[in-house]
Amino acid sequence: MAAIDLAVIGGTGVYRLASLQDAEAIEGDTPFGKPSGPVRVGTIRGRRVAFLARHGEGHSLPPHRVNYRANLWQLRQLGATRVLAINTVGGITERFGPRVLALPDQLIDYTWGRASSIWDGEGGEVLHVDFGDPYTPSLRAEVLAAAARAGVAVVDGGCYGATQGPRLETKAEIARMRRDGCDLVGMTGMPEAGLARELGLDYACLTVVANWAAGCSGDAEITLAEVLAHVEAASAGLPGLFDALLG
Ligand code: HPA
Q1: Is 213 in the pocket of ligand 1 (CB under 6 A)?
Q2: Which residues span the domain enclosing 136?
Q3: Which residues contact 223 (CB under 8 A, 6 or more apart)?
Q4: Which residues does the annotation say bind phosphate (predicted)?
Q5: Could you tell me the distance, in angstroms and rounded to a whole number, from the CA of residue 198 to the centre of ligand 1?
Q6: From atom 9 of ligand 1, which residue's Cα is the shortest distance away?
């Protein structure tokens, strides 16, 4: 299996990589079941890139039903060693308004009931992987350098709070997350990051801020139309960033 230079997991509103050429759709199975959909393996600037839509290509899987284990297992099985995850989020603190791209460096996990370890079979290994820095520093540095070369603004750092969803949060929940130190809130950051660490994959999370989180901008209702419009606008910088990252 030829190595894959970069695997990209697309979140809400990011179902294709526009610059991926000659892509082949690979369906597959894993010990954990089927991934969210086909992995599209092609090239960007002559480098092999794999793309997987986390929620399925028609966005049919809610965050708590995504088979995170199967997705990462499949990417690794296809030869990926580094994963850049794209996650749509709400912004909590000032620097993280709608349309901002950010590369968080910390996370807090508020999810529950998700299969959160590769190693939970009877008689299997019990692993306590180091997770002090949940995102791989060297991959983060590469993405930040590529963004700077491409002239794409990306906020360096921030704390991602992973909630269970699929409903959005209450104002009180967001106020608590702010007190906890969260800058961003999303529903898919965990267990994905922890599983990637268990599997020995380099992993970084590129967040696309789609809205102010509940109560962070008055009483305005958060609508799907708003979320998708902001994601589309913020995603305009992604092809340039990927080009620079793989160039
Ligand atoms: N909360 C949780 N997840 C999200 C949000 C939000 O406000 N916006 C986009 N994904």
Answers
A1: yes
A2: 6-246
A3: none
A4: 12, 54-55, 188
A5: 26
A6: 89
CB 185 less than 6 A from any atom of ligand 1: yes
107 located within any domain = yes
Protein residue with its CA nearest to atom 10 in ligand 1: 89
Residue 24 CA, ligand 1 centroid: distance in Å:
31
In a domain, 1, yes or no: no
Question: What domain count does the chain have?
Answer: 1
The DSSP symbol for 211 reads E
Q: In the 8-state DSSP scheme, what is residue 145? A: H
List per-residue pLDDT tens for the chain, 247 residues long.
678 999 999 998 888 888 899 999 999 999 999 999 999 999 998 999 999 999 998 878 999 999 999 999 999 999 999 999 999 999 999 999 999 999 999 999 999 999 999 987 777 777 789 999 999 999 999 999 999 999 999 999 999 999 999 999 999 999 999 999 999 999 999 999 999 999 999 999 999 999 999 999 977 888 889 889 999 999 999 999 999 999 8
* Helices and strands (H, E) in the chain, number of each type: 6, 11
Q: CATH number for the domain including 241?
A: 3.40.50.1580
Q: Whole-model pTM? A: 0.95
**Residue nearest (by alpha carbon) to ligand 1 atom 6:** 90
Of 101, 168, 178, 231, the residue with max ligand 1 atoms within 8 A of its CB, to mutate for a pocket test, comes to 168
- Rounded Cα distance, 10 and 16, in Å: 7
Binding positions for substrate are 187, 211-213
φ, ψ of residue 244 to 5 degrees: the values are: -70, -35
Does ligand 1 come within 6 angstroms of the Cβ of 108? no
Q: Which residues contact 11 (CB under 8 A, 6 or more apart)?
A: 54, 55, 85, 86, 87, 88, 186, 188, 208
Is 179 contained in some domain? yes
Residue 175 belongs to some domain of the structure:
yes
